[in-house]
Amino acid sequence: MTPFARRRAPRVLLLLALLALASHAAAAQDTSAPAYKISYRISMPQPASHLFEVQLDVSGLAGAERVDFQMPRWSPGRYAVFDFAKNVQELKAANSCPPEKMFAIKTLPVERLDTQTWRVSTEGSGCVNLLYKVFADDLSGTFSQLDERHANFNGGSVFVYVVGHKQDAVSLKVEAPLAWKIINGYSTRPDESEFRFPNYDLLIDTPTEVAPDFTVQTFEVGGKLYRVVVHSLGPEGGHRDELVRAVEKIVRAEVATIEPPEFEQYTFLFHFDPNARRGDGMEHLNSTEIIETGALADPKVLDSAIGTAAHEFFHNWNVKRLRPVGLGPWDFTRPVVTRGLWIAEGFTNYYGKLSLRRAGIWGDEDLFKSYAATIGGIENSPGSRLMSAVESSLLAPFLDRASHDQRTNLADTSVSYYPKGETLAVTLDLLIRGRSRGRASLDDVMRRAYEEFYLKGAPDSYYLKGRAYTVEDFQRVASEVAGFDLSDFFRRHVYGVEPPPYDEALGYVGLRLVRAPDAKPTSAGPTVGAGEATRQARTAYRIETDEKASPEARTMREAWLKGS
Ligand SMILES: [Zn+2]
Ligand SMILES: [Zn+2]
Asked: For residue 150, how far is its CA from the centre of ligand 1 (angstroms)?
């Protein structure tokens, strides 16, 4: 290499590195622009119309000629692409901020650029008001609903963001109908109607309920306040107190499994609506939205709500804070790209159920039956032989409540990362416990990952503390905590499609997986019609206690079931 080349090469490399950084930053979001002052107002003057009215005031434009506004194509936690912009109507812009200067109001030109983006020309104004209506008639963890009973909104489906300014602090004012109360994860008083958020991503992480007749019950665990909000649109049969007691037991069990949570208060927002089209559960940073499609009076509905609460509350650690790469901050112009949903959702399935046992709500047999059913669903599904846990995570936008007008073969070619990840968690936990002779567990792996990536990780964005992990990061932490190399497990069962070593894993805690012929059809893929799965000979799976298990295996089983 000549001296000339030696001097030149680093400059070229530096330039290439800068270009790479610049294009990466542009793809994620340009966070270098001076912050705008952004205020949202949502009102509901005619609940029966299902139309929310939204006003967005943006000021501090500093000479910008135009401001682009964008509606997310999807929202976090539910990965199908829904294109929320389709429910936006009557969008217009003006240049009067704050609103009291209404006499000077002037309409500004708006151009629609694509399905999700509107461009407003500022015409020299230092501020822009954007006004639109958004149709909302779905009670769900993703969509929103306004009717004569209540308003329940999830921000991703009602609020546009300012392109290039998703990282700016925002405020929200909720204008409720007379005598309707407002509650969300951030509210601290019944009459509170104005909220501030560090960025748009956290604004839309805050589902809000507005109604005249929800109930609020509270309890404390470790000095943190927990609120159980119930909006019953059917009879309760006196079950509400039982629900609250069960939720408290779950919180205690899960806090003991990982560690005390970071929030000061957490809000469970329950809906019991016999007319709801679908049930749902959605995790948020300091709240969860849970929708049951029946009345609380029905014992099965009560059980379902308790099970969902156990799953969603575990997300407080796993997914909302300890998060795989791709899960925040979000690029809402394209479907999510993440390889870790089998950990984020599958491990949460596993821990939700285990927590019901640790909380004393389930017995051993309930737990074994539930895990065996998941193993059966996976092992009987032809998609399990074709799609790995990682690939399933990447294809979440096809699988997670996506609707398919075109006929697909997904029922036979795909596997859901929920049950797939659950089977991997069962196996991994028991392998770690067994091979380490009880010294380590998946609980330790989760605690260590939470600490290393969330609590102590150098922040990777404006969105939240800590950094996101890759599947490789998780494999490393799991191996370090387990005390043995897990690369073979990950290669065969996580990146590959080989069934995990259930027999070895269950054997360590004195359990057996029993396989027997069964005619009952099950499917682990998305329910998109009867496929090959329902035509094949089936195997029924059952987890049994091995009466001849060693005392060591019994001790290890107790530790696993009780949490230590
Ligand atoms: Zn409600
Ligand atoms: Zn979940």
From this structure: 5
DSSP state letters, 80-131: S---GGGGEEEEEEE---SGGGGGG--EE-EEE-SSSEEEEE-TT-SEEEEE
The token duo for 388 is 């790995």
Q: What does each C-alpha distance from 155 to 80, 101, 283 come to in angstroms?
A: 16, 28, 13
User: 482 C-alpha vs ligand 2 centroid, how far in Å?
Assistant: 25
Residue 202 near residue 155 (C-beta atoms within 8 A): no
What whole-number distance in Å separates Cα of residue 277 and Cα of residue 494? 34
Q: At what angle do helices 240-257 and 299-314 cross, to 10 degrees?
A: 30
Point out the ligand nearest to the CA of residue 183: 1
Cα 124 vs. chain centroid, distance in angstroms? 41
Distance in Å, CA 199 to ligand 2 centroid: 23
Strands 287-292 and 280-283, bridge-based pairing: antiparallel
Ligand number, closest to the Cα atom of 421: 2
The angle formed by the CA atoms of residues 189, 191 and 195, to the nearest 5 degrees, is 75
Per-residue confidence in pLDDT tens, the chain, 564 aa: 443 333 344 444 444 444 444 444 333 455 677 999 999 999 999 999 999 999 999 999 988 999 999 999 999 999 999 999 999 999 999 998 655 455 567 899 999 999 999 999 999 998 999 999 999 999 999 999 999 999 999 999 999 999 999 999 999 999 999 999 999 999 999 889 999 999 999 999 999 999 999 999 999 999 999 999 999 999 999 999 999 999 999 999 999 999 999 999 999 999 999 999 999 999 999 999 999 999 999 999 999 999 999 999 999 999 999 999 999 999 999 999 999 999 999 999 999 999 999 999 999 999 999 999 999 999 999 999 999 999 999 999 999 999 999 999 999 999 999 999 999 999 999 999 999 999 999 999 999 999 999 999 999 999 999 999 999 999 999 999 999 999 999 999 999 999 999 999 999 999 999 999 876 655 555 544 444 444 556 899 999 999 999 999 999 999 999 997
Collect residues with CB below 5 Å from ion ligand 1.
150, 152, 211, 231
Distance 338 CA to ligand 1 centre (A): 32
CA dihedral 414, 419, 425, 426 (to 10 degrees): -120
Separation of alpha carbons 405 and 450, rounded Å: 40
CA of 249 relative to ligand 1 center, distance in Å = 25
16-47 b/e (C-beta count within 10 Å ≥ 16 → b): eeeeeeeeeeeeebebeeeebbbbbbbebeeb
- For the entire predicted model, the pTM comes to 0.92
Instruction: Please say whether the beta carbons of 537 and 517 come within 8 A.
Output: yes
* CA 349–ligand 2 middle distance (angstroms): 7
- As a whole number of angstroms, the distance between CA 218 and CA 266 comes to 10
| Residue from 352, 341, 491 nearest 417 by CA | 341
Distance 211 CA to ligand 1 centre (A): 6
